[in-house]
């Protein structure tokens, strides 16, 4: 569907479409195609902003972008579900949480949450107490990431 939207807009990829361009040409797409394309275009913009936020160590902005990403996945791409939305909402309403969103293939199962180290225990306790299902937790710590080495 997103490939068809790009083609309708005269582009090889939605990577070449700005949100303004998409909104200006909304009438050329049916509502579902427009929503899916809006998710892709806005997610590309969020990804660029997220990279800049990480480079400047702006975790508050990065967390806000995570929240926006989840909203877009839920509302425009329609790949979330009630259980994941509940987990994301519980996390986002917790002290020390920068942001939370679904991750993986969609339609249930997994979220990723950026949380201050000293707030992790409290977040886990809150979710165990308040979540309507049973949650499993995997604690991860960010590391330096991929690097290039010349041999």
UniProtKB/TrEMBL annotation:
<dbReference type="GO" id="GO:0004335">
    <property type="term" value="F:galactokinase activity"/>
</dbReference>
<protein>
    <submittedName>
        <fullName>GHMP kinase C-terminal domain-containing protein</fullName>
    </submittedName>
</protein>
<dbReference type="GO" id="GO:0005829">
    <property type="term" value="C:cytosol"/>
</dbReference>
<keyword id="KW-0479">Metal-binding</keyword>
<dbReference type="GO" id="GO:0006012">
    <property type="term" value="P:galactose metabolic process"/>
</dbReference>
<dbReference type="GO" id="GO:0046872">
    <property type="term" value="F:metal ion binding"/>
</dbReference>
<dbReference type="InterPro" id="IPR013750">
    <property type="entry name" value="GHMP_kinase_C_dom"/>
</dbReference>
<keyword id="KW-0547">Nucleotide-binding</keyword>
<dbReference type="Pfam" id="PF08544">
    <property type="entry name" value="GHMP_kinases_C"/>
</dbReference>
<dbReference type="InterPro" id="IPR036554">
    <property type="entry name" value="GHMP_kinase_C_sf"/>
</dbReference>
<dbReference type="GO" id="GO:0005524">
    <property type="term" value="F:ATP binding"/>
</dbReference>
<keyword id="KW-0808">Transferase</keyword>
<feature type="domain" description="GHMP kinase C-terminal">
    <location>
        <begin position="51"/>
        <end position="132"/>
    </location>
</feature>
<keyword id="KW-0067">ATP-binding</keyword>
<keyword id="KW-0119">Carbohydrate metabolism</keyword>
<keyword id="KW-0460">Magnesium</keyword>
<keyword id="KW-0418">Kinase</keyword>
């Amino acid at each position: 569907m997103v490939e068809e939207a790009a083609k309708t807009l005269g582009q090889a990829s939605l990577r070449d479409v700005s949100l303004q361009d998409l909104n200006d040409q909304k009438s050329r797409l049916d509502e579902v195609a427009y929503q899916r394309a809006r998710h892709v275009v806005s997610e590309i913009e969020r990804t660029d902003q997220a990279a800049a936020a990480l480079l400047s160590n702006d975790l508050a902005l990065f967390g806000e972008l995570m929240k926006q990403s989840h909203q877009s996945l839920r509302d425009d791409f329609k790949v979330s579900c009630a259980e994941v939305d509940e987990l994301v909402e519980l996390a986002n309403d917790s002290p020390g949480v920068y942001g939370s969103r679904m991750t993986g293939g969609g339609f249930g199962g997994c979220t990723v949450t950026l949380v201050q180290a000293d707030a992790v225990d409290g977040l886990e306790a809150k979710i165990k107490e308040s979540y309507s299902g049973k949650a499993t937790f995997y604690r991860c710590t960010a590391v330096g990431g991929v690097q290039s080495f010349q041999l």
